[in-house]
Amino acid sequence: MSTMKSGFLRAVLSSVALLALAGAAGAKNSPSVDNRVRGSADAPLTIVEYSDFTCGYCLKFFKETWPRLQAKYVDTGKVRFLYKDYPRADQGPGVAAALAARCAGDQGAYWPMHDRLFAEGGRLDSDVFFTHAKAIGLNESNFRQCLRDASHLPSIFEDRQEANAWGFRGTPGFVLLKTAQEPTNKDPAVAIPGAFPFEAFAEEIDKMLATAPPVKGAAPKTEPGRSKPGH
Description:
By secondary structure, this protein is an alpha+beta fold. It has eight helices and five strands, in the order H-E-E-H-E-H-H-H-H-H-E-E-H. About 50% of the residues lie in helices and about 10% in strands.
């Protein structure tokens, strides 16, 4: 990512930061999203991904870029990673898959379901959801009831509204910000609107790490039900 493009992305983020600030700040600390966080609570930086399980570019990020980000920055305690939903349609497989992942999260298995849904790389329906639910050891009755109740749907669409407030109109979209302080016009968050290669993420992360304050009073956090992509 060139310096010119980096500056443009920072300018865009600073102009919409006040609109989405409350949602993004809450995303870093709310217990309701803890099972969608990978990494340590005391990581100096946080990346928020807005994504759709049916998005080809989101799958590209998951398979090509995410493993390198995880190894270099998340597993080493430098970056905390939060997944948020951005279904591109109001109904259909993208929404159903987001709901399936949330329901798995209710049983402490958000990431195993998330990773399997992306590893599926295409077909997403109830048969697939229940195959994965059985494979990762979910209580299938509770899982089925959660899908029926669909109580997570409002939160799923709130994620999409938050993404729109950051200026995203497609998937995936990423926001990189300092965990211990809110973005400002002078020190904005950085938007990465698309499945950019690992090097683009690394450039922005390294730049922000150089000025990021430590997170005080935060205990290390392990990832509930963590699994490697595709397992």
